[in-house]
Structures are given as C-alpha cells and as structure tokens.
Amino acid sequence: MGLCGDYGPSDFKSACIRASWSAFVPAAIVFFLCLCSVPVPRPARRIFAIIGSPFRTYLTLHEAEAIDINVVSGDKVLDREEAETVLEISKVVPLWRTVVFAFVGIVESFCWVAYGSYQIYNDPDDICRGVLSFLLATSWLYTVVRPIARPTATSPQDMFALYLALLSGAILQLGGVLFDHSVLEAPLPSKTTLFGLITNLLVIVVLLGMVVSMPLDIPSIRVDVKEIVSVLS
C-alpha cells in the first residue's frame, strides 16, 4: 500500500496525491539546492567545470563595460585600479526585501506546522497529511535562511525556482478543492481552510512578483539606470 492507498502518482482527483506533489516537489528543490552548496573535492570541481563550460557567460556585464571604457578613452588603456574606480558598483542590498522574504517565510512555516499538527491531532491514524504539511514548512524555512545568510540585490534564481514550485502546489491544491466541489459535488472545506489556501496562493504570487522585479545584474555607477531599455540594452 502506497502513501495514498490505491491511488497512483497521476491520480490528481485524490486530495492526498495533490498534497503529496505540492509538498515533495518544493522539498526536492530545497534538497537539491542544499546538496549543491556542499563543498566538493577538487577533482570533482574540475569535472563539473569541464561539463559546465559550454553554459558559462561568454562576456559578463562588467567586462563589457570595461571594454566600452577603453574604447571611449581612445588609445589610453586603463589599468586595473583605474578600471575598478570607474566601474564602481553599488553593493547596497535593500533591507526591506530581506525582511519581507524572511517574515513571510516564517509565517508560512508556522502556519503549515500548525495545520500539520492539527491534522495529526484530529486524525492520529493518518499522519501522512500532517507529515506533508511539515515538509512544506521545511521548504518555506529555506526562504527564511537564504535571504538572511546570502542577501543579494539581484534576482535570486534559487528562490525563484522554489517559489514557482510552491505556486504550482498552491494552484494544484486550491484548484483541486474547487474541482471536487463543482464537478464531483464534494463539500467545500471549512472557511478557515479555504481562506488559508487562497491567502497562500496570493502571498506566493506577491513574492514571485518581488523576485521578478529585481534586476538580473547591477550596472556600474557610470550607467544611468533610467536609460536602460530606452537607450541602453
């Protein structure tokens, strides 16, 4: 007997299957991200460098700016110290984004822990649903630690991938509830549960919007940010 009884992994009509996908996919992403952060031996790093060499950026933004400076300066070639002075980059990380990411992650983690504890208390014979909620809470904890441990002014691709997985899970759970009610004529869950599912979906959409609005790279102070897109590309 599997996690959800006789239901297969593609039987999305089962609420247990929907909850399992919504919990396992973000948890797998978090596990992969944590695994990638573990230091690897030097021989393994060489192998990974050879494999990843075709996917490296050929010319970075700041290297292109340095070339542009030398072209503008004519025959004069700036040395490294002069180039670093001209290409000074603002390293200020907006604190409010870190606070929002961490605060929302903590609240989401507490809510999923509370929901999982209630499920285990309400139905001690079926603790799988509670464990899935705890797994989701663990995934949300990554969004708390990541912006505090490694704050960045650019768009965090790891959190973007995790938020996408969480958004897919939230749509799957809320859509499944509405589908069961409209097609299978199943009763709607309690108002508290329904409010929690809708709020969870809206919160993830807002967080994804914040990540998407962050720049992919920070230009030097010699670049007028207002001219990006309209004049500069």
The biggest sheet, with number of strands, parallel, antiparallel or mixed sense and barrel status, is: none
**Alpha carbon gyration radius:** 23 Å
Pattern of helices and strands? HHHHHHHH
C-alpha end-to-end distance:
57 Å
Oligomeric state, counting identical vs distinct chains? single chain
Shape: globular
Q: Report the sheet-strand fraction.
A: under 5%
Number of helices: 8
Q: Which structural class is indicated by helix and strand composition? A: mainly alpha
- Count the beta strands: 0
Arithmetic mean of pLDDT: 79
Proportion in helices = 55-70%
Poorly predicted ranges: 75-86
Which structural traits does this protein have?
mainly alpha
Task: Give an account of the 3D structure.
- The chain has a domain at about 15-40 and about 90-215.
- The chain is mainly alpha-helical and about 230 residues long.
- The radius of gyration is 23 Å and the shape is globular.
- Helices cover about 65% and strands about 0% of the residues.
- Helix 1 packs parallel to helix 6.
Topology record:
Layout: H1 15-36, H2 42-52, H3 61-72, H4 80-86, H5 95-122, H6 128-149, H7 157-182, H8 191-213
Helix pairs in contact: 1-6, 1-7, 5-6, 5-8, 7-8
Concise account of the structure shown:
It is globular and about 55 Å long. The protein is an all-alpha fold and 233 residues long.
